[in-house]
Design a protein that fits this description.
The chain is of the alpha/beta class and 562 residues long. 35% of the residues lie in helices and 19% in strands.
C-alpha cells in the first residue's frame, strides 16, 4: 500500500535514513509540532528500515494506553506487521512491541533481551517523559542500551524543570534539546500552521472581578489592578505573598457552590464565566465546522467533576467526563471522538498524545507547571481535519503571568497574517454542507432546521432587583449590580495551595496526607529492606507519597470488590 507523505515527513524520513546510513549516531530526533503527523512519519521510517533489513524488531514507548492502542493500529496499517501491547511480562519476542513509559521499569528484562537478540529500532514517543528520571527515565536508559537505532519524537522540546533526560541534554539558556542538526528534523508550530498541518490559535486571558474575604478583611482582585492589599492591616512581608497567592488561578481551581452546599455549582462563579466564553466560541466555530468539539482540562478530579456539572447547567447537555476515577475511559474518549457530543472534560489524560481532530476549543485550568505541559495541551485543539479545514483553535485560561508568557511564545512562532481572526459571515449546513447566511434558520436545499441558540441566565445578586441576565454578564443590565464572586479564603490557605514537585501537580489534600503518613511509610520500607523500593523512595518527591498511598489503597479495595 502506498502512502502519501507530507513534504516535511518526506524530508524527515530521508534525513533520518541518511543519518543512520552514515552511522554518525544511533539517535535521530524529530521535533515537530503536535498534530503535524509525527506518528505516521516515525512508522514510515520504521517500515523503510525493515525493508532495508536494517532492523528486525520495533519497540514503541508511548505516554498512555490510549496512545499505545493508536500506535498499534497505525503501525499495522503501514507495515502490515502486528504490534503487541504489553503491560506485564514479555513472554513472546516474535512480535513488535508497544508499551507505555510507565511500564518500562517492569518490562526492563524483556526489553534488554529483545535489544540484545534482535536488530531493534526504538521509537520514543513524547520524549519529555524520559526526562523524568525520578519515575522511569533511568529504566529506559538501561532497557534500550543495546538497541540499534532510536527515533525520538517530541512536539514540545522545551523543558524548564532543569532535569536531564536520557539520550539528550537540554540547553541551560534556551531549555531546548541539544542534538546535531544533521540528526534532527524540526518543524515548529508556526511552520506547521503555514503548511496547513495545524490551525492557528487564539488565546483568551480570562479576568473578572472578585471580592476575597481574607481573615475578615475584604480584598479586591482585578485583572487591571491585581490584588488590593492594605499594608496597614497586614505585615509588610506578607503583602507580596498574599498578592501572589490570591489570584485568578487560585480562584479558578476553587469550586464555588450555591449556599456552600458542595453539590450545586454556582453559575456566578469564575469557572462559569470561563466556560461561557468557551461555549460561545464553540458555537461560532460550529457555524462552519458543525462537528467541532470543546475540551476542558481541569487541575484535579474535584474541579473536573465541578466543570462537568457546570457545563450540563450551561449547555443543557451532559458532557463526557474522563479521569482516573471514571470507568471505561478509553471507550469514553473513543465515543467522544466519533460522536457529535460538544464537550469532553478531563484532568490530564487528554493533554498529550490523544488525537481527536474535531476539538477546537480548550478551557485550560491546570497548574502552569512548564511550557512543555502547556504546549501539549494546546496541541489537542490545533490538529486540522485536512486541507479544507479553515477553522481556528481557541484557548481560554485564567489570567496568570506564566500562561501569558507561554502563550506569547507560541504566538511568536505564527506568521502575522494568522494572528487576527476573521469575522464569520456565513455558516455551513451540517446536513448538505452548502454555504448559508449566518442568520438563516432553515436550509433551502435540504430543509435542515438550525436549533435555536441556548442561552443560560442568572439572577441579579441584588435581592431588590433579581433581574435575569446572561451568564456572561459582569453587571446587571437592570440595576447595575456587580456580579462579583464572594470568595472566602483564610490566611493559611492563601499561602499554601498544593505544590508542584518533579513536575507533578499535587493537591493540598494529598500534600497533607503525605505529611501525615510519610514517616510511617518510610519506616515500613526501611524495615522491608527492598533495594528497589528504597531507590523509588529517593526518586519520588515526599509530597507525592500521600497520593501514592491513597491510590494504592483504592486499587486494593477495587480488587477486593471485584
Amino acid at each position: 500500500m502506498a502512502f502519501k507523505l507530507r513534504k516535511w515527513q518526506e524530508e524527515a524520513v530521508n534525513k533520518s535514513l541518511n543519518w543512520f546510513e552514515n552511522k554518525k549516531d544511533k539517535k535521530f530526533l524529530i521535533n515537530a509540532a503536535p498534530g503535524s503527523g509525527k506518528t505516521f512519519c516515525a512508522t514510515v521510517i520504521a517500515n523503510e528500515l525493515i525493508k532495508k533489513n536494517e532492523i528486525e524488531r520495533v519497540v514503541v514507548i508511548a505516554p498512555m494506553k490510549e496512545v499505545v492502542k493508536k500506535w498499534s493500529q497505525d503501525f499495522h496499517t503501514i507495515t502490515g506487521r502486528n504490534m503487541m501491547k504489553f503491560t506485564g511480562e514479555i513472554e513472546d519476542d516474535s512480535f513488535d512491541i508497544c508499551a507505555t513509559w510507565h511500564a518500562v521499569e517492569g518490562l526492563l528484562d524483556g526489553f534488554q533481551h529483545i535489544c540484545k537478540k534482535y536488530k531493534t529500532l526504538i521509537i520514543c514517543d513524547e520524549h519529555h517523559h524520559a526526562a523524568i528520571a525520578a519515575v522511569w527515565g533511568e529504566g529506559a536508559g538501561k532497557a534500550f542500551f543495546d538497541s540499534k537505532y532510536v527515533v525520538v519524537l517530541t512536539g514540545t522540546p522545551i523543558r524548564t524543570s532543569g532535569e536531564a533526560p536520557i539520550w539528550f541534554s537540554y540547553s541551560p539558556t534556551s531549555g531546548k534539546l541539544v542534538h546535531p542538526q544533521e540528526g534532527t528534523y524540526t518543524l515548529d508550530y508556526g511552520q506547521a500552521v503555514d503548511y496547513g498541518y495545524c490551525r492557528p490559535i487564539t488565546f483568551h486571558r480570562h479576568e473578572g472581578n472578585f471580592d476575597v474575604h481574607l481573615n475578615n478583611e475584604s480584598l479586591a482582585v482585578s485583572g487591571k489592578d491585581g490584588v488590593d492589599v492594605d499594608e496597614k492591616k497586614f505585615p509588610k512581608k506578607l503583602v507580596k505573598s498574599i498578592q501572589n497567592s490570591v489570584n485568578f488561578y487560585t480562584l479558578a481551581r476553587k469550586p464555588i457552590y450555591v449556599n456552600d452546599d458542595g453539590v450545586t455549582p454556582d453559575i456566578n462563579s469564575y469557572q462559569s464565566t470561563m466556560l461561557q466564553w468557551g461555549i460561545d466560541k464553540l458555537e461560532d466555530v460550529k457555524l462552519r465546522t458543525p462537528e467541532a468539539g470543546g475540551l476542558v482540562i481541569a487541575p484535579s478530579i474535584k474541579v473536573a467533576d465541578y466543570m462537568a456539572k457546570l457545563l450540563e447547567i450551561l449547555t443543557k447537555e451532559k458532557p463526557i467526563l474522563v479521569h482516573t476515577e471514571t470507568r471505561n475511559t478509553e471507550d469514553k474518549i473513543d465515543i467522544f471522538r466519533k460522536s457529535k457530543k460538544n464537550w469532553l472534560v478531563s484532568v490530564a489524560m487528554i493533554s498529550e498524545g490523544v488525537d481527536i481532530p474535531r476539538l477546537r476549543v480548550l478551557v485550560y485550568l491546570p497548574n502552569p507547571q512548564t511550557e512543555l505541559s502547556f504546549r501539549q495541551a494546546i496541541g489537542r485543539v490545533v490538529r486540522t481535519l485536512g486541507e479544507e479545514d479553515e477553522s481556528r483553535a481557541y484557548c481560554v485560561m485564567p489570567l496568570h503571568e506564566k500562561f501569558v508568557e507561554y502563550a506569547r511564545r507560541v504566538l511568536s512562532e505564527m506568521s502575522p497574517k494568522y494572528l487576527s481572526e476573521q469575522i464569520v459571515k456565513n455558516k455551513i449546513c451540517p446536513s448538505c454542507r452548502i454555504e448559508l447566511k449566518k442568520d438563516q434558520k432553515v436550509c433551502p436545499e435540504c430543509s435542515f432546521e438550525f436549533p435555536a441558540k441556548k442561552t443560560t441566565y442568572k439572577h441579579c445578586l441584588n435581592d431588590q432587583c433579581a433581574a435575569l441576565n446572561p451568564v456572561s454578564a459582569s453587571t446587571c443590565g437592570s440595576c447595575g449590580e456587580s456580579f462579583h464572586i464572594k470568595y472566602k479564603i483564610n490566611l493559611a490557605s492563601a499561602f499554601r495551595d498544593g505544590v508542584i514537585a518533579n513536575e507533578l501537580d499535587i493537591s493540598e489534600e494529598d500534600v497533607q496526607l503525605a505529611e501525615k503518613n510519610f514517616e510511617q511509610l518510610r519506616k515500613d520500607f526501611l524495615e522491608e529492606g527492598d533495594p528497589q523500593m528504597l531507590a523509588l523512595m529517593k526518586k519520588v518527591p515526599k509530597e507525592a507519597w500521600g497520593k501514592i498511598a491513597k491510590y494504592t489503597q483504592k486499587w486494593f479495595s477495587d480488587k477486593e470488590e471485584k
